[in-house]
Amino acid sequence: MLKLCEIRKSYRGHLALDGVSLLLQPGVTGLLGPNGAGKSTLMNILTDNLLPDSGEVLFDGIPIRRMGKAYRRLLGFTPQQQGLYDDFTGRRFLSYMAALKEIPRKDIGGEVERTAGLVNLSAELDQRIGAYSGGMKQRLLIAQAVLGDPRLLIFDEPTAGLDPRERVRVRQLLASLAQERTVLVATHVVPDIESIADNVILLKSGRITASGPPEELIGRY
Ligand code: ADP
Ligand code: ADP
């Protein structure tokens, strides 16, 4: 469904992505690479937040640049945990994000309840985000990504800063979301993806060095 063709991107002469081509299929794909490998750059390009210098991202054969808002509606994205609105309640944050995603006003209340239920935050929706644990904040960001039920979900370092129990919980949650969806999880830590990914892509210095099932690839990382 999502295809990247020969993506190149440099920042003032520094080559961050050097001809990346890949096909994302339904299920979980793990994008595994050390810091500086180009993961964030790649995610910014495939969420249409950054233009590549050359190459193309196609969704069902159509360049995403030409799809505009229609592409954004198909996409849910969890950026790294920062800039969460501490003084908002969870409900206010999700309602606000739903409005930004242009979910019809009459559907927002129900959509907030549905997504909070998916991430098991229903009971805490009316608490301040500032009082949430790291794991709760991460689950709230995941709920935000699932608003409007997009087919494509992208998670950037989804377990960063979480304690071991919360990590396991977030990984299980990501795996459960992969039913009938295409999920990309970018991480520099193997345990994030080894038990949930159907396919793993190794990225190093802006190039894909290998891809395949996790059991074959993880030893090479
Ligand atoms: P990762 O997410 O895997 O850590 P990034 O995509 O953030 O990798 O970075 C890839 C490379 O590009 C790194 O060498 C990084 O320092 C560089 N880079 C990323 N963003 C910028 C930027 N805005 N300006 C200059 N260099 C950047
Ligand atoms: P990550 O590894 O998650 O991408 P970074 O610390 O590499 O985190 O990047 C954080 C932000 O800084 C990103 O917006 C990235 O584009 C930018 N950035 C990364 N490296 C550089 C760099 N060398 N020069 C300027 N901006 C950079």
Structural summary, described in words:
- Pfam families: ABC_tran.
- InterPro entries: AAA+_ATPase, ABC_transporter-like_ATP-bd, ABC_transporter-like_CS, P-loop_NTPase.
- This is ATP-binding cassette domain-containing protein.
- The protein is an alpha/beta fold and 221 residues long.
- The chain has nine helices and ten strands.
- The strands form two sheets. It has a six-stranded mixed beta sheet, with helices on both faces. It has a four-stranded antiparallel beta sheet with strand order 2-1-4-5.
- The protein starts with a strand and ends with a helix.
- Bound molecules: adenosine-5'-diphosphate (2 copies).
- One adenosine-5'-diphosphate binds next to loops.
Provide a quick synopsis of the model.
This protein is an alpha/beta fold and 221 residues long. The protein has helices at 39-46, 64-67, 69-74, 90-100, 105-118, 134-146, 164-177, 191-194, 214-217; strands at 2-11, 14-24, 27-32, 54-59, 62-63, 75-78, 152-156, 182-187, 199-204, 207-212.
Number of strand segments: 10
Query: What string, H for helix and E for strand, traces the elements in order?
Result: EEEHEEHHEHHHEHEHEEH
What kind of assembly state do the chains in view correspond to?
A: single chain
Strand order of the largest sheet: 6-7-8-3-9-10
State the main characteristics.
single chain, 221 residues, alpha/beta, six-stranded mixed sheet, four-stranded antiparallel sheet, 9 helices, 35% helix, binds adenosine-5'-diphosphate, ATP hydrolysis activity
Question: How do the strands and helices of this protein lay out in sequence?
Answer:
Elements: E1 2-11, E2 14-24, E3 27-32, H1 39-46, E4 54-59, E5 62-63, H2 64-67, H3 69-74, E6 75-78, H4 90-100, H5 105-118, H6 134-146, E7 152-156, H7 164-177, E8 182-187, H8 191-194, E9 199-204, E10 207-212, H9 214-217
Parallel strand pairs: 3-8, 3-9, 6-7, 7-8
Antiparallel strand pairs: 1-2, 1-4, 4-5, 9-10
Bound molecules: adenosine-5'-diphosphate (2 copies).
